Amino acid sequence: MKQDDSNATARRAAYSIAAGAVVGVTGSAEAAISYSGVQDLAIAQFSSQQLNLDGDAYNDILLKNYVFGGGNYQGAYVNFAPGKVVGFSAGLSYASALSAGDLIDASTTSGGPFQASMAYGGNNPNAEFNTASGAFIGLEFPIGGVSHFGWVRVTVDNAAGSFVINDWAYNSTPGAGLLAGQVPEPTSLGLLAAGAAGVAAMRRRQVA
Hints:
- By secondary structure, the chain is of the alpha+beta class.
- The protein has a domain at 38-170.
- Helices cover 19% and strands 38% of the residues.
- This is PEP-CTERM motif protein.
- Residues 182-205 form the Ice-binding protein C-terminal domain.
- It holds the Pfam family PEP-CTERM.
- It comes from Botrimarina mediterranea.
């Protein structure tokens, strides 16, 4: 259930303060960004949550909060090809815990897994979401068979079995990337706490 506007505004401000300075992005860099607003959806243990970022007939990413024999497990699964998350391989496939302002586009999802571990205690030692507060999952997902890019902000405490989906956004322009934390201009000055270096990277890529 969505919270009232005053609580949502307070949480949004807290996310921004925690991550760093808020920087505006104007013009085409943010015009096509679609943002969920603050949601704070808690996934119960032994459960999962589908997210439909663009509101079409298809869910885009499945986020898991399971309990296995080895303990609490959190993971991500992009439902349709050519979807994938920003991630890496280190014996197993892992999702990268992105920071505000990190670039999400074809260059950063290239070679990434469609199914990735986020946290599994000591069982998956390279996992980056064991204790993550407002970290970002970057993803590529299809709309009408064409790649789009987005982010999902999450807060995870693996030891406690806690998994909260804070909010999400995607770029509705086919093939166009975005920065982790980037939102439409009226919502919060274009970026939720992305630094100037991230803004510069986005602008350089648009010019190229």
